[in-house]
Amino acid sequence: MNWYAYPDSWSFIFRRYLPRLAFCSLAWEIVQLPLYTLWTEPRLGRIVFAVAHCTAGDAMIGLAALLLALVLSRAGAPAEWPITRVGALVVVLAVAYTVLSERINLTRDSWAYSPWMPVIPWLEVGLAPMMQWIVVPLAALWWANRQLTPPRQSE
Asked: Which one of 27, 60, 90, 152 is CB 3.0 to 4.6 Å from 65, fit for a cystine?
């Protein structure tokens, strides 16, 4: 049976992975603010809106990457997911999307890098957004898969 037929799959995705992905994305967006020209925006409301907007977009990218990774890996029951393969596919898919998105948005002047942003020369894309899609989804998957130790019974 395919992964989408299991209620546990949807529970994992929406109750464990997505909230953790959103939290990690929010933290990443805040930390990388100085690497964008938005950082110098005098209106705090504009910065807050941009961070919220980008975090929501990151959550959608990460969700789409996970769903496609589950399809491509032919995942079954969540307990049997090939999590290493799924994680690798999520990273590859999200990085590929990010390269395209960054190039398009930089060309359209939707955003710009500050002088502090390290840029990958052959791609002309910032290192921070590329690293985001290596670190954040893997951290979210690890965190979502982490088994909590049950509390010990007092004797």
From this structure: 90
**What does each of the 155 residues of the chain score in pLDDT, given as a tens digit?**
799 999 999 999 999 999 999 999 999 999 999 999 998 888 899 999 999 999 999 999 999 999 999 999 999 999 899 999 999 999 999 999 999 999 999 999 999 999 999 999 999 999 999 999 999 999 999 999 986 445 555 55
Closest by alpha carbon to 133, among 79, 54, 70? 54
117 in any annotated domain: yes
Q: Is residue 152 part of a domain?
A: no
Rounded to two decimals, what is the model's pTM? Answer: 0.90
Please name the amino acid found at residue 5.
A
User: Does 80 fall in a domain?
Assistant: yes
Q: 72 lies in a domain? A: yes
**Domain ranges, residue 134:** 3-145
Overall number of domains in the chain? 1
124: three-class secondary structure by DSSP: coil
